[in-house]
Amino acid sequence: MKSIPLSTRWEHNFLENQLLALTRKLSECEKWEGQIKDHLREIEKISISLFGRKGSDPLPAVSMVDEEVNVRLFERCTELVSSLQRAVRLIETDPDSYGICEKCEREIGLKRLAASPWAPFCIKCQREIDEQKLGLTG
């Protein structure tokens, strides 16, 4: 049974508030993304100044950990920016699809959307996806 779209279930206000929350979070994430990029460039400069050229010798352990942490942060931030952009596009172009799980096509709970307005999956489907990524299911 297909759910009733959020745009018909809720006031236009709800979608406007979600769009505002997404836009704010997107701006914040893009700022973080820039800061992390700057930090990675700084690590690269230090590597070049210490070892003559990028990647010619291993970095000291602390710098390697710092670089790895920043690379992972950058990847997560980039993923979040992409998810935020997708959710904004969805609200702007197809508001009836916003709040519908991309996997099972059921409604995404309002508490989940309030906490993560960019969520493309309901809690149940997200849990299944996470378990598959972690290899917890067959």
Characterise the protein shown here:
There is one protein chain. By secondary structure, this protein is mainly α. The chain has a single domain, classed as DksA, coiled-coil domain (Four Helix Bundle (Hemerythrin (Met), subunit A), Up-down Bundle). About 70% of the residues lie in helices and about 0% in strands. The chain is built from 5 helices and no strands. It has helices at about 5-10, 10-50, 60-95, 110-115, 125-135. The longest helix has about 40 residues, at about 10-50. The model has no long low-confidence stretch (mean pLDDT about 80).
Q: What is the H/E order?
A: HHHHH
**Cα-based radius of gyration, to the nearest Å:** 20 Å
CATH superfamily: DksA, coiled-coil domain
Write down how many β-strands occur, each being a DSSP E stretch of 2 or more residues: 0
Low-pLDDT residue intervals, each spanning 5 or more residues: none
Structure class: mainly alpha
Number of H/I helices? 5
The CATH class, by name, is: Mainly Alpha
What would the CATH topology be? Answer: Four Helix Bundle (Hemerythrin (Met), subunit A)
Shape: flat
* Tally of individual domains: 1
Global mean pLDDT: 78
Largest sheet: none
Q: Can you give keywords for this protein?
A:
single chain, 138 residues, mainly alpha, Four Helix Bundle (Hemerythrin (Met), subunit A)
Reconstruct the topology from this structure.
Blueprint: H1 6-9, H2 12-51, H3 61-93, H4 110-115, H5 123-134
